[in-house]
Amino acid sequence: MSNYHIKHLEEYFQVYNKSVNDPETFWGEIAEENFIWHKKWDKVLQWDFTKPEVKWFEGAKLNITENCLDRHLITRADKTAILFEPNDPKEGAQHISYRTLHERVCRMANVLKEQGVEKGDRICIYLPMIPELVFTVLACARVGAVHSVVFAGFSSTALATRINDCDCKMVITSDGSYRGKKTIDLKGIVDEALKDCPTVNTVLVAKRIKSDITMVANRDHWLQPLMDAASTNHKAEIMDAEDPLFILYTSGSTGSPKGMLHTTAGYMVYSSYTFKNVFNYQENDVYWCSADVGWITGHSYIIYGPLANGATSILFEGVPSYPDYGRFWEVVEKHGVNQFYTAPTAIRALAKEGSAFPEKYNLSSLKVLGTVGEPINEEAWHWYDDHVGRNNSPIVDTYFQTENGGIMLTPLPYITPTKPTFATLPFIGIQPALMDENGKEIKGNQVSGRLCIKFPWPSIARTIWGNHQRYKETYFTAFKNKYFTGDGALRDESGYYRITGRVDDVIIVSGHNLGTAPIEDAINEHPDVAESAIVGYPHDIKGNALYGYITLKASGKSRDEDTLRKEINQTITEHIGPIAKLDKIQFSDGLPKTRSGKIMRRILRKIAHNESDNLGDISTLLNPEVVQSVIDNAL
Ligand code: WT7
Q1: What distance in Å separates the CA atoms of residue 286 and residue 292, rounded to the nearest whole number?
Q2: For residue 499, which atom of ligand 1 is closest to its CA?
Q3: Distance (Å, whole) CA 347 – CA 369
Q4: What is the rounded distance in angstroms from the CA atom of residue 152 to the CA atom of residue 14?
Q5: How many A from CA of 372 to the centre of ligand 1?
Q6: Structural domains of the chain in order of their starting residue, each with its CATH number
Q7: Is the CB of 545 inside a 6 Å radius of any atom of ligand 1?
Q8: Measured from the CA of 506, which atom of ligand 1 is nearest?
């Protein structure tokens, strides 16, 4: 087990150097010693960022679920694999052992086969955070189907777009979902979406809220009776290392969501290795990541990474505020959680409710705290450290992206000295570079620039589903021979990295990555809207909130502004989902534009940030005169 578990800082530097100086030997050893393979690879790595093309462990044969399930049956059959904590604490937790999880996944795999699913088919999973979500994700992997999990907070339009983009032939959903006090009619949303999805011929429905729903004959089937009837034996499909494992959509600054395609072996190796080290997971630990499986964090750090390590991973259906703001800490106490991983937006929301909630609970089991999804501000960092970790649990500020598959920059707990707001050092094998605007690498410390990665790591997304050209343009064109993250970063005097935020038009609201263009597209669908521009502005809880500048058509000018605001947010909810609603909507007679007609978001951003006395040169605008009126009417 050489190098699989790093134990001190000197070892980190040694292993890091090895991973950079001889990546093939290094990753070959990690892969060989810690996973089971039907056949070993012919070549560890083949890559060319100009095409771009990346292949890890080519020639190897495996099934990721044998690594996540079957191999643990010898030593950990009765150990809890998934600890399900429902929305309502009164319902009681469910301990799903490795034996039971294996059995359920085998049954589910047989259900998929009986329903005609073949290797390579795309399956859309639109489920709440219930055990069936884990069964279906793993069952897809077991039969070699490509799962595309869509976060069950997305609207029917967003769901339909994602189903159609990769031609899913099946959707797996539930009758509905619980969210705090509310229930959501998931099946109704699926029915609406499927009006526009010609490739879907089967819908499997898990029963969760026992609501009265309509089942479409020959298309819809209840999942449970099929599972009950299915065999518990299933021989995993043997996959090639580079066979697709899943597609996960992420929004960009422009255009439709990008279906990031992840493949099998490299993803398995990297998600598993990062999990072990970033959380310092020990055999009897209870680990909890509060993210939704609809995001990459949930894929890599609720399901694949933990299960590949034989861990106990909590699957939490609820919300931080129900029944009250002590919910997270109640779960930590009840299950003796050792590693807790959440997002800055959740920390800020909980901090706002005061420290009395965490103080009520025994949190002494905690050994590691994690954060991910956006830059964590200093205040939130200290609140987390003081009131949750009680200055006794290191915080790992983990930086990565959907495209990365696994954590890229992070401290290792009890090893790397932490520093608030810094994601600190690259993980093993990660070669960051800061670039200036002319495409030159900025060497040395105490510098800032655009964050690129110079060398492939095993879990880099291989393409955008159906659009390799877009993949190339988005990530590999701005800087020659490098992967560009889209983030700005600084490197301090000791080589620690701090992410300063996106340099493109993506705004992170409550940890959700929102492209401005799709939101503007949605707003522009409103019949009274002529044009719109969205910018972010700092928000205490959400990190950023959305500020919309909207010009109305003549038809809208006589209408009540508050009614219009409601309708516009309703339109956004229908097209994208409630997470993309605007906090502020300012109506304006015009928007500042360049001569080529591009809206100058830079100026609007300054106004939204209350920095309108510092707009820079606006004389080159097409319509400098509108700027003053936008300032005068700012909210
Ligand atoms: C973007 C990726 C990775 C899971 C959730 C987000 C931002 C992520 C951090 C962090 C500062 C962070 C970046 C990145 N981000 N983690 N620890 N510190 N910023 O995945 O939706 O693909 O978003 O989230 O801006 O590019 P995603």
Answers
A1: 18
A2: 11
A3: 11
A4: 43
A5: 6
A6: 9-489 (3.40.50.12780), 510-632 (3.30.300.30)
A7: no
A8: 25
